[in-house]
Amino acid sequence: MDIREEVDKxxxxxxxxSILDKLSTTxxxxxxxxxxxxxxxxxxxxKIVLIMDKNANPTISKxxxxxxxxxxxxxxxxxxxxNDLSG
Length: 87
Prior knowledge:
Elements: H1 3-10, H2 19-25, H3 27-35, E1 40-44, E2 47-52, H4 61-65, E3 70-72, H5 75-86
Antiparallel strand pairs: 1-2, 2-3
């Protein structure tokens, strides 16, 4: 999988979608990674904010992301990353 082609699915830079909407759109990517036994860790300032793979351990984030393949490690860091990428 060429992850460069999938980056916009993780955090689309355009549009006014909320962080929750953006997380919902990554469901297909997270499930594909899990199926291929791959892990994608999203970092902000060297700290993991989101993990996508088959061993993700989502708690309440499963209700937000609608998949068991994404684990939010740091919701504040994830929000800040979204703000960083949005400009």
